[in-house]
């Protein structure tokens, strides 16, 4: 397989973005990460668009939309649409990487979208990654069956989860806590330590179907549980997610899962989740799965 990298004007690849999330994250994301990775794959890249099986469109969608007021009231979309229309040679052979909630927010035609934060838009699910969290020198003991720190306002399932478990002493549900690692970590009241002290990290969907928490939990060595109506764990054809993570479509499903949880198995899953995150899913590691997806799509089209 050969890939031709399209060359958008630099204005569509902003150097920075005005807002960082999560708060500890550096101004870097999967859109830049894949672009950097692909340029190093000399065996995949071709300078001839005609001989290429796929064309890659390296627009930095997230930085663009954030810098244009999150595309509120359509800000920046007309310019972006016109620019993309000029760049794309064949939309049916074009793919792009996006993290922004809702995807590219313009008409991509038949373009293939790899997206980390689906809302109602279609796309092939990929990891939603951020900078690593610091860890204490010694892992905290397990204190909670499961835990969640964060806002409840981004999706009704979070409110339902908070109401269901607020009287359960084994499940820690807290809102509004920061995700930075404080030096006064003995308080044990921040995301990092609560996650590491849990058998399961609860990762309910928010505005998008995915959650940074899912992959943060993997980095912290705790088995993540995605909670939401859509299972967006990425690359399911190639990654055995059930071996090191959980999924609950509803809060009822989550309650049953936690009631029947095998703690020893959860610890094993957490350790395996960390290894898989480190070796397969962190920056520069996950990109190869995009190629696997494209190869499979190509084999189907040629069948």
UniProtKB/TrEMBL annotation:
Residues 124-252 form the Exostosin GT47 domain. One of its GO terms (molecular function) is glycosyltransferase activity. InterPro entries: Exostosin, Exostosin_GT47. It holds the Pfam family Exostosin_GT47. This is Exostosin GT47 domain-containing protein.
